[in-house]
Amino acid sequence: MSGFGHGFEGSYAGNAARLAPDDRLECGICWWIYDPAEGDELGGIAPGTPFAHLPAHWVCPQCEAPRHKFMVLRDD
Fold it and tell me: Helix/strand/coil (H, E, C) string of 18-73?
């Protein structure tokens, strides 16, 4: 298990303080990827917005999964 505490592999366990501003996260339901460099045009999220700065009401634009269902993608 990674250093993200309890939960599934790559989970940030709902603790946005554990995320780097450029971390990309993948929905654990539909596998849609939130990339801060791209933002979320459908959700009105500007490019350059870190996942930790998404509004509380934000959900996956593809399947409406809540934020805590997202997993951090690591390049290593």
Answer: HCCCCCEEEECCCCCEECCCCCECCCCECCCCCHHHCCCCCECCCCCCEHHHEEEE
Residue 60, both tokens: 């996956």
Domains located in the chain, CATH noted? 15-76 (2.20.28.10)
Taking only the tens place, the pLDDT of each residue in 5-62 is 334 455 666 677 778 899 999 999 999 999 999 999 999 999 999 999 999 999 999 9
